[in-house]
Amino acid sequence: MIQTLSKNDSQIQQDVLKELKWDSRLDASNVQVAVDGGVVMLTGKVTSYVQKVAAAEAAHRVWGVLDVADDITVELPGTITVTDAEIAHAVRTALMLDATVPDEHIQSTVSDGWVTLEGQVDLWRQFQEAEHTVRNLLGVVGISNKISVSPQLITTEQVRIAIEEAIERQAARTAERIRVAVCDGVVTLAGKVRSLREKQAVLAAIGHAPGVTTVDDQLLVDPLV
């Protein structure tokens, strides 16, 4: 089906609802969608944190969506009870079993199902993967990722060049549309990408660069670029 050049809020709302139903990771029967000026507001309930994340990702995939406000709450089914102690043990086990995460440098605190991750890692990729490892666990209702990334002895210019080269290796046309700025380990990305998948690929490339401590993602998804 050929996309029109613009979509109104009602069309975006219907497409988001369809995308939520299409995503096999979640049950969207209790999720409500409102749209105002291209900004999507998600409310309602799901039974796991990974479903909450999946709902936001599904909304972002829809053409015409500018931003997503995720106010979905996580409520476990009435027959399932998971204590904070059980979640804490599951977090530790998951981190230990993930070979890409330095689990010995990460600590967690669990309160009413909300997991707070702390510690220090060497790469931005490890910061991201620690959170991804935990978010699929049963009983988790939210995550605060307070892990810090260790600064490394590499210049700002070296970081910028390394990132630009990595993006260009993976998608030359994408690199042409992205501006990369680095200041004291903080990478700011600006420009446009054609899809959420393309955006995720760019962020993944940055995760391997030494010296990156934080990423300020200002990329916009525009399938018409």
Description:
The protein has helices spanning 9-22, 49-61, 84-97, 124-135, 156-170, 172-176, 196-206, and strands at 31-36, 39-46, 67-70, 73-74, 106-111, 114-121, 142-145, 148-149, 178-183, 186-193, 214-221. It is flat. The longest helix has 15 residues, at 156-170. It has three domains: 9-74, 2-Layer Sandwich (Histidine-containing Protein, Chain: A), CATH 3.30.1340.30; 84-149, 2-Layer Sandwich (Histidine-containing Protein, Chain: A), CATH 3.30.1340; 156-221, Histidine-containing Protein, Chain: A (2-Layer Sandwich). The protein is of the alpha/beta class.
Quick structural gist:
This protein has 225 residues and is of the alpha/beta class. It contains 7 helices and 11 strands. The protein folds into 3 domains: 66 residues, Histidine-containing Protein, Chain: A (2-Layer Sandwich), CATH 3.30.1340.30; 66 residues, Histidine-containing Protein, Chain: A, CATH 3.30.1340.30; 66 residues, Histidine-containing Protein, Chain: A, CATH 3.30.1340.
